[in-house]
Amino acid sequence: MDEPDQLKPLDPAYVTVMRIGMAIFLAIPLIGALVIETAQLTATGLFIIPLAFLAAWLVFVVPARRYARWQYALGADRLRIVRGFLFYSDTVVPLGRIQHIDVHQGPIMRRFDLATLTVHTAGNHNAGVSLPGLRHEVAVAMRETIREYIKAAQG
Amino acid sequence: MSEVDVLPQPLPQAEGQQQGGQRLHPLGLFVSFISGLPQLFLPIVAVLFGSGSRNRPELIPLVILGVLFVSLFFRWLGWMRFQYHLGEDDIRIERGILSRSARSIPYDRIQDVSIEQKPLPRLLGLGEVKFETGGGDGEDAKLSYVSLSEAERLRETIKARKAGQAATTGETAAVEEESGATVFAMDTGRLLTLGLYSFSLVIFAVLGGVAQQFDFLLSYDIWDIGAWIGVAEDNGVSIETIGTGARIIGALAALAGLVAIGILTGIIRTFLTDYGFRLERTAKGFRRRRGLLTLTDVVMPVARVQAAIVETGPVRKRRGWHALRFVSLAQESKQESHHMVAPLARLDEIWPIVAEAGIAQPGETAALQHGKFGWWLSGFVIVLPIIFIAMAALMLFAEASLARASLLLLLLPLMLAIMTIEWRVYRHGEDGMQLYVRRGWWRQRLTILPQVRVQSVEIAQSPLARLVGLVSLRFGVAGGKFEMLALPREAAEAIRDNVLAIAAPVDFSVINRRG
After folding, report:
1. Distance CA A84, CA A86 (A)
2. Residue in B with minimal Cα distance to A93
3. Structural domain tally of chain B?
4. What is the pLDDT of residue B222?
5. pLDDT exceeds 60 at position B145
6. Is the CB of A151 inside 8 Å of chain B's CB atoms?
7. Is the residue at B157 inside a domain?
C-alpha cells in the first residue's frame, strides 16, 4: 500500500509471441479441417468456417486481451503478478520466501529477445510462479535484484 | 555415543575409496535375505521348469539351494559395495555393484530422520534409518539396516550437525536430546475407543483381492451366487424351505457379523499402528513413537511445523474426541502428508501440544465466519442449463413427456441442500497472527496457519465467482494447502495485506531453521 508499486505491463512484443504460439498450436486442427473439407466428407464449410472464426478470435483478439491483463510489480520485499482473462489471479510472493529463480527463453521468445522469469517457493500451492514476456535484460536484472535481497536477508 | 571421526576429506574419488565409510550391519544382510524370500519364489519355479528337473526329483533341493545361494551372493556383493559416511556438512551414500552411485545429502536439507523397526529386525536389535529430504519426488535415502544404537547415534549426530554447522567443533553433540517430557500418550482404553471409531470394512476388499489373485486355485467361482445356492440345495436346503422368520434372522445375523468384523478390523489396525503411542517434547522438537509389530520413531523439529490441523467427525465430536496433525516441511508418508500427533484426544489435551509448536489456540478475536452464500449458489449457473438441455434431449430423442422430463428438476432441491450443508460447515477467520479455515462434515478439519508461515498469497477469481463478485484467497504453505473461499474482494485484499506485512519481512531460512 505505502510503497509506490505501480503495476507494470509486459513487453508489447509478447502479444506477437502469443499470436505466433497460438497460430502454431492451431495449425494442426486447421490442417485436419482442410483435409476433411477437401475429402468432402461433410457439407462444404461445416468444419472449416466455424474453426476459422474461432482461430481468428484466438489469434487476433485473445492475445491482446490476455496481454492487457498481465501486469507485475517488483516491490521492495515482494513480487506481485496479476493475470487472467477468464480466470483472474493476483499473486504476491514475498522475496524472502523464494527458493530459487529461473530465467527461461523459448525459441519464439528468443527471436523477440523476451524471457520468462519463474520464482519457486516451498509452498505446495504456487510452487512455481511464472512471469512471461519480459525483455531478457529486464528478467535478468529482476533475478539479480531478488538474489541480492535473499542474500542480504539470510545474513 | 561418542563423537564420530570427522574426516575432512574431499569428495569421494571414483572408486576404491574404502576408508572413512561405514558398512551396514551384517545381520541386516540376513534380514533382507529373509524378507526377500517371497520374491525368490518365481525364480525358483522358473529354474525348476527350465532345468527340466521335473524328471529328476532328487535335483530339486539342489536347484533351490542354488537359487538361494546366488541371491545371497548378490546381496552380499551389494552389502560390500554399500557405504555411508558422515562428512563435515553432508552425509554420503555410495552404492552399486556394477554402476556406482554416490549421493550427497547436505545436513541442511535433511528434514526428518526416522527410525523404523519391523518385527524381524526388531528381534535382532536392528533398525532402518530414513532421511527425509523434502524433495517432491519421494526419492529419499535410507539405511537398511543398522544396529539400533548406531541409528540413534546417526540421528543425534545429524541433529547436532544441523544445529551447530557454525560451530565447527563437533563436541556440541549433546545427548540430552534423548529424554523429553511426554506430551501425549495413549493407554489401552483409549486405543480401544480409537479402534471403535476406525470401523472399517477394508478387510473385504483385501479378501476379495486375494481371492481374485488366487482364484485359479479354487475349483469354483466364489462370486457366482447361483453356485452357492446350488451348494446349499445339494445339502438339502432351498430358499423356499427357509421360513420368513429364519430369513430375517439370517439377514440380521449377517449384518451383525459384518459390523463385528468391521469393528474388529478397526481395533486390530489401530493397535498395529498406534500401540504405545507416545509423543515427547525434546529440546528441539517432537518425538513420536508408536507401533505394535512395526515400531516407528519420528522426530519433528518444532521450527518445521507449518500448520496444525484439528480433525473430528460427526460421531466422535459428540463424545469430545479430536485428532491433531501437523503440516510439516517433510511428509509423513506417501499416503498421509500430515504428521499424526494425537490420534484421539480431548481439546484440552490438544491445545497444549499445539502451543508447544508455537501455534495458538483460536481465541475470541478469531471470529470464524461463514463464506458468502452466493459462492455456492453460483454453481446453479452451470447446472441449470445442463438440466434444461438434458430435459430437452429427453423429450426430443426419448420422447418423454414434459412431466416425465421435469422429474430432472428434482435434482435442484437436492443440490440446494448439499450446497447449504457445504456453506454451513465452511468457516474462515483471521486474528492478526493466524489464519483459520474449517471445512467438511464427515471429516471436519480446522486448519490453523500462523501467518508468518505463508509462502505466497494469491487472490483468484473464476468466471463463476465473478458473477457473484466473490474471490478466493489461496496461500502457499510448505507441505499443505490452505484456501479461504467466498470472500468479497476488499476483505480478501485486507487479509492479504495483513498477512504480507507479517510474512514478508521474515526470511524463509530464519523461520524454518532456527532451533
Report:
1. 6
2. B456
3. 1
4. 58
5. yes
6. no
7. no
Q: Across chain A, which distance is largest between two alpha carbons, in Å?
A: 71
Report the share of chain B in percent with pLDDT over 70. Answer: 82
Chain A, residues 3-42, CB within 8 A of chain B, namely none
Tell the residue number behind the cell numbers 545371497, with chain if given.
Answer: B72
Min mean pLDDT across B215-229, B233-247, B396-410 is at: B215-229
CB of B437 less than 8 A from some CB of A: no
Residue B176 pLDDT > 60: no
As separate numbers, helices (DSSP H) first and strands (DSSP E) second, chain A gives: 5, 7
- Asked if B463 and A87 come within 8 Å (Cβ–Cβ), the reply is yes
Rounded Cα gap, residues B275 and B188, in angstroms: 8
B108 touches chain A (CB under 8 A): no
Distance from CA of B417 to the nearest CA of A (A): 28
Displacement of CA B356 from its chain's centroid (Å): 22
More confidently predicted of B379 and B238 = B379
Tell whether B244 is within 8 A of chain A (Cβ): no
Which residues make beta-bridge pairs with B301? B285
* Confidence at B6, pLDDT banded by 50, 70, 90: very low
Return d(Cα B121, Cα B322) in angstroms, integer. Answer: 34
| B467 touching A (Cβ < 8 Å) | no
Helix H or strand E encompassing B34? helix B26-35
Establish if B503 touches chain A: CB-CB under 8 angstroms: yes
- B241 belongs to a structural domain: yes
What is the CA B9 to chain-centroid distance, rounded?
A: 38
Instruction: Quote the CA–CA distance of A50 and A23 in Å, as a whole number.
Output: 16
| Cell numbers 514475498: residue | A94
Tell me the backbone φ, ψ of residue A93, rounded to 5 degrees: -115, 120
Contact A93 B455 (CB under 8 A): yes
How many Å lie between the alpha carbon of B111 and the closest alpha carbon of chain A? 13
Q: Which residue among A121, A150, A153 places its CB closest to the CB of B476?
A: A121
- Write down how long chain A is: 155
Query: The C-alpha cell of A75 is what?
Result: 516491490
Residue B35: inside a domain = no
Residue in B closest to A85 by C-alpha = B463
DSSP strand E in B148-245: where? Answer: 181-185
ipTM, 2 dp = 0.87
Q: Which amino acid, residue B259?
A: V
DSSP conformational letter for B117: E
CA nearest to B299, candidates B510, B115, B91: B115
- Measured CA to CA, the distance from residue B484 to residue B474 in angstroms comes to 6
pLDDT per residue as tens digits for the range B293-331: 888 888 888 888 889 999 998 888 999 999 999 988 765
Q: At what angle do helices B244-274 and B188-197 cross, to 10 degrees?
A: 130
Q: Does residue B475 belong to any structural domain of this protein? A: no
In angstroms, how far is CA B15 from the centroid of its own chain? 38
Residue among B457, B466, B481 minimizing CB distance to A92: B457
B458 contacts chain A (CB < 8 A): yes
Domain boundaries, position B208:
202-273
Enumerate the residues of chain B whose CB falls inside 8 A of the CB of residue A120: none
Least confident among B5-14, B184-193, B230-239, B344-353? B5-14
